[in-house]
Specification:
The structure is a single chain. This protein is of the alpha+beta class and about 150 residues long. The chain folds into two domains: about 30 residues; about 120 residues, NTF2-like, domain 1 (Nuclear Transport Factor 2, Chain: A), CATH 3.10.450. It has five helices and five strands; from the N terminus they run αααααβββββ. Strands 1, 2, 3, 4 and 5 form a five-stranded antiparallel β-sheet that branches.
């Protein structure tokens, strides 16, 4: 009888460990949209602007059609003009958004994910923070990034 009770207790402990691991994976592991945004800003913080441009959506690339111009402009604004060598960033939790478009007259995406990002820069002008929502959708099976241009 004691042997059977130990076996049942051991199985329950194993079950609880597996359940805890599944919960951690589901709630603590970043989602696909969050991973994409993290990759994007990791590239940006390392001045790998060409790699970050590759993660933009096709619609965003219409705004920045020339990869080399994007790279040069981002490098100029952040590295040269503001004298920033690197920056820190934090990616927030994604939230599903229905019927989202990048701007007036833009393509409506039935499902997008809003992912907040906070960037902290140390520059010749002091420390400053930029908070920006990024939007992520699947394009041809791949996650791609948007910025919000609905002010136009």
């Amino acid at each position: 009888m004691r042997r059977q009770n130990r076996r049942i207790a051991g199985m329950m402990v194993l079950f609880l460990i597996i359940l805890a691991a599944i919960v951690c994976i589901l709630f603590l592991w970043p989602s696909g949209p969050e991973r994409l945004v993290d990759d994007f800003y990791a590239y940006e913080s390392e001045a790998e602007f060409g790699k970050s441009w590759d993660l933009l959506s096709a619609e965003m690339k219409l705004r920045f059609p020339d990869r080399a111009d994007y790279v040069q402009n981002r490098a100029h604004v952040f590295l040269q003009h503001m004298d920033v060598e690197t920056f820190q960033y934090e990616v927030g939790r994604s939230k599903k958004v229905k019927d989202w478009s990048m701007g007036k007259g833009g393509k409506v995406h039935k499902k997008a994910y809003r992912v907040p990002v906070t960037q902290v820069f140390e520059s010749q002008y002091g420390i400053f923070t930029i908070e920006q929502d990024c939007y992520v959708v699947k394009e041809k099976g791949e996650w791609r990034l948007f910025w919000d241009y609905r002010f136009e």
